[in-house]
Amino acid sequence: MLPEKFFFANAPFLVLLALLPIIILWFLAKYRQQYPELKMSTLAAFAGANSWKGKLRPILTILKVAAIGLLIFALARPQNKFDEEEVKAEGIDIVLVMDVSGSMKAQDFEPDRLGASKEVAKEFVDSRPHDRIGLVVFAGESFTQCPVTTDKNILQTLLAQIQNGLIEDGTAIGMGLATAVNRLRESESKSKIVVLLTDGVNNQGFIDPMTAAETAKSYGIKVYTIGVGTKGKAPYPVRSLFGRLQYQMMEVQIDEELLEKIANMTGGKYFRATDNNSLRKIYSDIDTLEKTEIEVTKISRFTEQFHWFAILALCCLGLDWMLRNTLFRGIT
């Protein structure tokens, strides 16, 4: 619900407020006629005659003017307006497939490939509030980190928990894609997409990547593929003889031809990310390409407030009548 708004339904009546100065002058003129001035050489004879009632007599005029002003506001019909938006979204079912093999520790991204991929994926999830999103991770094998869900808090928590070493090392692209397809094959959404991110060449798994791509196509699943890694060489993590983690400059090997074939077969698109900025732009491009259909219905509710002004005006008039017939009786 949006914040409430205060406005006047019959705003033209507010023009009548311009008459208030004229009314005040009229009351002053009437007062002078009722109580004319008498010039005397000395007021000694009337010392102490100026009572507190005389000093408070202008309150009656103030009450009348206030009542007129409040009645003008009541005529203008002040209202509170509450705006509500009903959102009907034709959501998209999305599965993010992320490579968590050892090579994703390469430091050609900040802080490394996996860290950068998690951060950008988090931003992508935040930008899709109306879609169901799931998460699959793979290395030498694959598993579902998070089923397709609308609960973004759970998804973000499980995304943050992704790390290297959870499963056997390797790069089973076909397994990762097949797991994602399995999660989407029974989806009733009109649009189903997979975003597959990897930094290597398929070298493990018992499902061929192209077979997985054909299955995705048969279920109407579009696959966007992303190759992650700089051009040329990058610092890869390796274990020394004593088990210590070291980094060596090694040639970046990404099977771009395979990733492009998968994307083309399923109606998706292949992207190459060489740094954090280009990776962020790729997810932004995918976000633009796959827009969710949203229907927004705006409902306005009004609450009348004029009666409060009318009640205050009546109170002023009532107080004026009471004072005129009690406290100020005989001097007005």
Can you describe this structure in just a few lines?
The protein is an alpha/beta fold and 332 residues long. The chain has helices spanning 20-34, 52-56, 58-75, 113-126, 152-160, 173-184, 209-218, 256-266, 276-289, 306-324; strands at 5-8, 78-90, 93-99, 132-138, 142-149, 192-198, 221-228, 233-239, 245-251, 270-273, 293-304.
According to CATH, the fold-level topology of the largest domain is Rossmann fold
Instruction: Please write the string of helix (H) and strand (E) elements.
Output: EHHHEEHEEHHEHEEEHEHEH
Give me the number of helical elements.
10
Mass-distribution shape: elongated
Going by CATH, the architecture of the largest domain would be 3-Layer(aba) Sandwich
Q: Can you identify the CATH class of the largest domain? A: Alpha Beta
Q: State which percent range the strand residues make up.
A: 25-35%
On the 0-100 scale, what is the average pLDDT? 86
Q: Biggest sheet: strands side by side, in what order?
A: 5-4-3-6-7-10
Question: Which residues form runs of ≥5 with pLDDT under 50?
Answer: none
Number of DSSP strand runs? 11
Major sheet, described briefly?
A: 6 strands, mixed
CATH homologous superfamily assignment of the largest domain: von Willebrand factor, type A domain
Distance between the termini: 53 Å
Determine Rg (CA atoms, Å).
39 Å
Provide the helix percentage. 25-40%
Number of self-contained structural domains: 2
Counting helices, strands and paired strands, the structural category is alpha/beta
